[in-house]
């Protein structure tokens, strides 16, 4: 499977836009137990959905299937499950759920995806919309004390921040890593680090990106920062600085990592295996680096001095053990 393009990398954004809503206007009403969120812990886009599901306490209402860290040109597979089949959907490949709805589906088989369990057909893989809808449409099943990750009073500002973070950082690391020319790479590299510098300035005097609580904006930035030193710095040549060499962003990332619902969703082994084993046109031998040293994620960050209330008037989710570092 080829990832590097001849010039500038352009992400295919033709996602399935069907929504699961409280009123069921697209034909898929919110119902506890009806849908299955399919993810890979390696994928930053899927990681967002894992975090939001956990922060909102939707585990009992929305089950989750976890694919392995690697995939081939066909799709993600359920190789972590007994017999290589998802125990709820009964399928070996996520591709089967896409074909169940669209037999001639010719776009990317991506995670996160939400599948309608009764029919076995995919409903949506629109990652940006999925997390927002978990916040806005699934409120009947939120846990008591769930945070408001997309407050109406801050929505415009969150959207503005998300737009530039997506273009320059979330997707920016891929534009650098999959660039097919020196010019395209350098443009993406410069744009990435200009944005990281601006984010450092923004976060130098405030604990969170928007307002004084964790929002959708923090979730979106965190999943890229969590992968920065382990993957993007070396594998994607985003090497002006490591995250650990950017003091404000490193402290901000550690603050979130140590917040229940964030670090306990991270699996660095899966993250490294995915990028280094799958992207063979960048890393032909498929060798997974032994480093970096990840123990610093649990060191004090000092961000409490900036104030802020992580969960606002809510409460943290029940703690889970942090994934083992490797």
TrEMBL record:
A single Gene Ontology CC term: cytoplasm
InterPro entries: Glutathione-S-Trfase_C-like (IPR010987), Glutathione-S-Trfase_C_sf (IPR036282), Glutathione_S-Trfase (IPR040079), Glutathione_S-Trfase_N (IPR004045), GST_Omega-like_C (IPR047047), GST_Omega/GSH (IPR016639), Thioredoxin-like_sf (IPR036249)
Entry-linked SUPFAM superfamilies: GST C-terminal domain-like, Thioredoxin-like
Keyword Nucleotidyltransferase: no
Site (Lowers pKa of active site Cys): 232, 275
Top-level lineage group: Bacteria
Region (Disordered): 305-326
Active site: 43, 174
Entry's Gene Ontology molecular function annotations: glutathione transferase activity
Binding-site residues for glutathione, renumbered to this chain: 76
GST C-terminal domain residues: 151-278
Protein name: Putative glutathione S-transferase
Key words of the record: Transferase
């Amino acid at each position: 499977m080829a990832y590097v393009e001849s010039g500038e990398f352009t992400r295919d954004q033709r996602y399935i836009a069907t929504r699961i809503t409280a009123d069921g206007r697209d034909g898929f009403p919110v119902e506890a137990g009806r849908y299955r969120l399919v993810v890979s812990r390696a994928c930053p886009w899927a990681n967002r959905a894992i975090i939001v599901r956990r922060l909102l306490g939707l585990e009992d209402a929305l089950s989750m299937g976890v694919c392995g860290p690697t995939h081939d040109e066909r799709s993600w597979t359920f190789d972590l499950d007994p017999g290589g089949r998802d125990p709820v959907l009964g399928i070996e490949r996520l591709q089967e759920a896409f074909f169940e709805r669209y037999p001639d589906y010719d776009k990317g088989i991506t995670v996160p995806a939400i599948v309608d369990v009764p029919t076995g057909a995919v409903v949506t893989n629109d990652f940006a919309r999925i997390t927002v809808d978990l916040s806005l449409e699934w409120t009947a099943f939120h846990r008591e004390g769930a945070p408001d990750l997309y407050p109406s009073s801050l929505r415009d500002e969150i959207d503005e921040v998300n737009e530039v973070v997506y273009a320059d950082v979330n997707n920016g690391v891929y534009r650098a890593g999959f660039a097919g020319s020196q010019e395209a790479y350098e443009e993406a590299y410069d744009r990435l680090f200009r944005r990281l510098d601006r984010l450092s300035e923004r976060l130098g005097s405030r604990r969170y990106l928007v307002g004084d609580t964790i929002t959708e904006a923090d979730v979106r930035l965190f999943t890229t920062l969590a992968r920065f030193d382990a993957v993007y710095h070396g594998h994607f040549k985003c090497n002006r600085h490591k995250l650990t060499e950017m003091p404000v962003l490193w402290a901000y990332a550690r603050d979130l990592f140590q917040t229940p619902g964030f670090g306990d969703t991270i699996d660095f082994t899966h993250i490294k295996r995915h990028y280094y084993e799958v992207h063979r046109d960048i890393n032909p031998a498929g060798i997974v680096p032994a480093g970096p040293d990840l123990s610093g994620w649990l060191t004090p960050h000092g961000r409490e001095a900036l104030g802020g209330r992580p969960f606002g008037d809510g409460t943290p989710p029940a703690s889970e053990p942090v994934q083992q570092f490797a």
